[in-house]
Every structure is written in structure tokens, then in C-alpha cells.
Hints:
Structural class of chain A: alpha+beta
Oligomer: heterodimer
Strand order of the largest sheet of chain A: 3-4-5
Number of strands of chain B: 13
Strand content of chain B: 15-25%
Amino acid sequence: MLAELQQNFSDWLVLAGDDGELRRGVVAARGLAAYQNNYRTQLVNVLRASYPQLRMVLGDDAFLELAIHFIDHRPPSSWTLDAYGADLPDSLRDLYPHNPDLHELAWIEWTLSEIFVAPDTAPLSPTDLGGIDWETATLRLSPSLRQRSIATNAMAIWSAWQDKVPAPEAEMLDTPAELIAWRQGFTSRLRDVDAIEHAALISLHDDGRFGALCDALVEHLGEEEGVARAGLLLTEWIGSGIVVGIID
Amino acid sequence: MSHAIPTFDGYGLGLRREHYRDFLDTDVPVDFVEVISENFMVDGGQPLDILRRVRERHPVILHGVSMSIGSADGVRGDYLKRLRKLADAIEPLFVSDHLSWSRFAHFNSHDLLPLPYTEETLAVVCRNIDAAQEALGRAMLFENPSSYVSFAASSMSEWEFIAEMSRRTGCGLLLDVNNIYVSARNHGWDAQAYLRGIPARSVRQIHLAGHTQGEDLLIDTHDQPVNDQVWALYAAATAMFGPVATMIERDDAIPPLPELLAELDIARHLREGRAAVKEAA
Lengths: 248, 281
């Protein structure tokens, strides 16, 4: 009986249809509307909180339409309400299939909120770097590190909203760019990387060995420049918390 | 579950983002703080660090909204594991949640939905509480909900259900006086009879909050100061349940901290004034 009630109540919340089945079992059925309202209002509010810039770009009415589409198609299932917006980009693709700028802006916003609560890591200290055999050493990337290719100027739009200055019009980039996001201490970071750094991070992610990374850079840039670039990248990654461990 | 739940006499507030700076930088005159457990059941980041730092200054109560203790298909193990990890790290004064359900199968409403008060529900709730207390290694407190419908199938009152739930599982009670007021008004219950039906020995904490008058019903919004009727009910409750952890719960339209501290002073004066009168007599 209880399971049946909870299934019926769940179905009614999701479908917002006829509540006749529920009404037969409740006293003062007018109160059902409060639950329907709470359910939908809370989900719209959490989507607004997760995607403040997307909401600004779309405008309130269009964002509400997007939220309603998403709520109707993807009822929440996670234990935490904070996870609810993870799949909003699915509805964005349905409603705005030809707006990669919106998809990429949504990725930036969601990724930054996700890494805000990623596992903590301690920064490497100079003493961690002594006596390392770099040929065999394996580098550990931050568990918060995320990356993706973007085809539009979504990052410039995001930065402008962030800095509260007028945002540029959305446009396609001449060539796709690579973005990385990660958390340094308690600060979420976002920046673009060039093709070499992108390839180096992919190599580290797949292999982990600094020696293999050096070999790849030498093959691409030549002995002198390849080794120098590897050193520069390593210094930058350690300093900014992208590399958080070295296993010798 | 044989863990005895300690008593704690003091006055506290919900720790909300708007007041993090106050709690980190100043000596806020409270005896404890309460946080929403789910906000901190995360892998890392600044909120968890802030909680650890506040914990160095104040006892902390972990108050959950998503355990869904009334789910007919049980409590989720992954949820309990995360809560256990947080509780082990924070060493809270109490761990609490609500007498309600939020989730069934793969759907999670993230709302505190009402239960029919039947023998079947009692068996489900008690089985779930046993499992949760076992997984957490401690006894919990459960809060009476505010509700907007009741069920024709109910065979006992909410307070009878709560008393029996506490007797069978050993769980403590978090009495939300505003919720009693809201539900009593919405369903035509006798709030004083509700209080009399609660086993005093099980009450460990009291919540005070504000509500809003909806079109037909009172809605538990937590976005208003505590009103006079709820203060009056609190005065009656404190006479019955004595010194227990008491707090103001504000979740929306959060005012500056001094306003909440002033409300907390009202609770202090109501209880301690009554105690002084009783002592003098």
C-alpha cells in the first residue's frame, strides 16, 4: 500500500496530470497543490542558481521555458539537489540545437560548480621536488581538472559576465580552442590552452610519465625546445595546482 | 540501537552562507549551530573547510533533508555512507532528519512529502531508522513534518505515530514547534494535545521558524520571523520538555545575524523566565 501510494504520488508530481487517484486517499485534497508547487518551484530555483549566466543570456522567460522542458523530461534522481542541473545541456540541445555558444557556456558554468566541491589536494612544496628521477617519475593531475574543446567565444562571454562588463556577441572561433578548468586551493580556475599544452595534458592523463611527455614534446618541437617547453609546463602546472603529486 | 542520546541545553542558529563570515571572524553568542547535512556531504572544497573551522568554535548539529526515512523501498546505502563520513569528521552533537519521504525508486522529489500514519508505515519507518542508525553508528533525531494533506487510511495521530516510532527504535525527537502549529491549523488538530502526546524523555531539540499564510493553508516557508502564536506554543512546549537545544531555523529571506540573535533571545527569555517563575514558586 505504501509503495503504491509513493509510486502514485511520484508519478503525479512528475506528470502534473490528473490527481484523482491521490484525491481519493487524502483528506483536504486542496493541499496537494502545495506539493506540486513546491516540487516545481524548487527545481526551477536550483537551475537558476546553477546557471546564472545562461539565464542572463537567454532572458528570464526563455530560461523558464528551458527549465520546464528539462523538469518535464528529466525528473531528479540524485540524493542531492545540487546535482540536478548536470543534464540541463540535454534540454539546451533539444531547444537550441544550433547554438553551440549556449552549450559551451552551460558547460563552463556546470563544470565550475562541480569542481568547487571536488576533492581537496595539497600544493606541492619545493621539498617534494628534490631527488626526483624525472625520466621515470609519474605526475598526478588534480582530480578537479576538466577539459573540452570549444568552437565559440563562450569563454569570452563568460568572462565578460563574470567581470560585469558588456559581453561580446556570440560567434564561432576561426579554429576550435581547448579549455581547462580546475581548482587551485579553494579558487576555481578556467583558461584556454594551446595545442601543445592540450596534447601534453592528454598524454599525462593517459600515461602519466613525465619522461614520455618529454619524448613527445622533443619529437614535436626538437630536442632543445621540447625539453625547455616540458620544463616550463611542469613549473606552470605545479605552481597553479594542475599537477598535485609526483610519484618517483 | 543502544546508543543513548546525550541531552544538550543551549540556544543555536542554522549556519547559512550569508553568515559564514560572522561565524569565522567573530565570537557569535550561540551554544551550537545546525547545518544542512547534504550541503557538506561533498568530496572537498571551501564549504567543507568552513564547516571544519566553525566546528572548532561551536558544537554542530547535522540536519538532513534527503534521507527519506519513510521510503517504502528503504534508505539508500550510498547516502548513508556519505553521511557517516561527514559525521565521523565533524563529530556532531546530533544527526537528524525528517519524518517524511522524498524518494521512491529512482525518483527523488527533494521535498518532504507526507506519510499515512498506519501500522504498515510505522513498520517501514522503524525498519529504515534501525538501518540508518546502524549504518551511522549512532542514534538519530527525527523531526515532525509540516504537512498540507493527511490520509484517510491513517489509523493513528501523528503524535501517536511519533511516540511509537521513538519507543521502538530509540531515536530521539526534534520537535519543530512551527510545524506543529502549521499542521494543526491545516488539519484542524489540537496543538496542545499534540504536545501532550510527545514523550518528553525523547525530545532533544526544538526548532522555531516562521510560516506564510497561503490561499487556503499555512505554508512552512522559513522566511519569516517566528510569530506570536508559535511563540505561545513554544512557551507551552518548553514547560513540558524542559531544557533542550533550541534554535531559530531560517532558510529564506535571511536577515542580518543580529535579527536572528534577537529572536533567539526571545526563546531564551520565554524558557528561562518561565523556569525562574517556577523556581520562585
